[in-house]
């Protein structure tokens, strides 16, 4: 499928699929959406959680559904760097973006121009093995279909960043969210940019408690789901 690189409204780039009229990130702003949905309403909830005896924060395990351009992984790395928060990051992607495409994104200049080597390393590391990017950040990129995920009680946080319901409704089913529920640790959290009734109902059916939150610019609402309460 043809891929085009386009500029979004906040000055950051994304990949657009003309055949689907679908983009990897919001056309209203790729970076501002990533910060709002995944950092502000997801990662920030875990900052400094569960201090170890050494006084350091216990590493956070994050699963990203749709590794794509690596934007969310890079932003998470930059945010974690500020507090030396340990991160075990797993990004699942069925159709990886090439390094040539990723290198055309302007995220380094927009987010942290002193971290270009890290962004390049994220895209050049071997797939399907754990790569220690820095002492505090490991990255495992898994080339895998979402429906084949079989993790159990592994992750603290899930970034659910699949293509939209309009083009791939099967990725937003209760069967997929059941896999997400099982992959999370008790009280684990899933955040996504999407907010439609059928998606919320699929999350509820899988066992999550679900809340609507204000969405990123250009989108009224988003969803955050928590593992722990009984099924409705």
Question: What layout of secondary structure does this protein have?
Answer:
Layout: E1 4-7, E2 13-17, E3 22-23, H1 30-40, E4 60-65, H2 71-81, E5 87-92, H3 99-102, H4 107-111, H5 116-124, E6 130-134, E7 137-142, E8 155-160, H6 174-183, E9 184-192, H7 197-206, E10 209-214, E11 221-226
Parallel strand pairs: 4-5, 4-8, 5-7, 8-9
Antiparallel strand pairs: 1-2, 2-3, 6-7, 9-11, 10-11
Helix pairs in contact: 1-2, 6-7
Characteristics of this structure?
11 strands; 232 residues; alpha/beta; single chain; 26% strand; three-stranded antiparallel beta sheet; Rossmann fold; 26% helix; eight-stranded mixed beta sheet
Question: How would you sum up this structure in a few lines?
Answer:
This protein is of the alpha/beta class. 26% of the residues lie in helices and 26% in strands. The chain is globular and about 45 Å long.
Describe the structure.
- There is one protein chain.
- The protein is of the alpha/beta class.
- It has a single domain, classed as Vaccinia Virus protein VP39 (Rossmann fold, 3-Layer(aba) Sandwich).
- 26% of the residues lie in helices and 26% in strands.
- The protein contains seven helices and eleven strands.
- The protein has helices spanning 30-40, 71-81, 99-102, 107-111, 116-124, 174-183, 197-206; strands spanning 4-7, 13-17, 22-23, 60-65, 87-92, 130-134, 137-142, 155-160, 184-192, 209-214, 221-226.
- The strands form two sheets. The protein has an eight-stranded mixed sheet, with helices on both faces. A three-stranded antiparallel sheet has the order 1-2-3, with no helix packed on it.
- A hairpin with a 4-residue loop joins strand 2 (13-17) and strand 3.
- Helix 1 crosses helix 2 and helix 6 crosses helix 7.
- The chain is globular.
- It starts with a strand and ends in a 6-residue tail after the last strand.
- 38% of the residues are buried.
- The model has no long low-confidence stretch (mean pLDDT 93).
């Amino acid at each position: 499928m043809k891929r085009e690189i386009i500029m979004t409204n906040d000055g950051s780039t994304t990949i657009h699929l003309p055949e689907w009229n679908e983009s990897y990130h919001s056309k209203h702003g790729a970076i501002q959406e990533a910060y709002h949905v995944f950092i502000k309403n997801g990662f920030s909830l875990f900052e400094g959680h569960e201090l170890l005896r050494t006084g350091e924060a216990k590493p956070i395990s994050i699963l990203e559904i749709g590794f794509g351009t690596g934007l969310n992984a890079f932003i998470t790395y930059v945010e974690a760097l500020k507090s030396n928060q340990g991160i075990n990051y797993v990004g699942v992607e069925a159709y990886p973006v090439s390094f040539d495409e990723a290198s055309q994104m302007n995220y380094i200049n927009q987010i942290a121009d002193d971290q270009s080597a890290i962004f390049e390393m994220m895209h050049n590391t071997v797939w399907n093995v754990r790569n220690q990017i820095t002492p505090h950040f490991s990255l495992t990129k898994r080339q895998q279909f979402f429906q084949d995920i079989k993790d159990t009680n592994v992750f603290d946080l899930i970034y659910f960043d699949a293509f939209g319901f309009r083009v791939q409704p099967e990725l937003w089913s209760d069967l997929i969210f059941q896999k997400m529920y099982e992959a999370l640790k008790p009280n684990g959290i899933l955040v996504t940019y999407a907010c439609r009734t059928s998606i919320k109902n699929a999350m509820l059916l899988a066992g999550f408690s679900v809340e609507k939150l204000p969405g990123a610019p250009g989108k009224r609402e988003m969803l955050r789901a928590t593992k722990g309460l009984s099924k409705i």
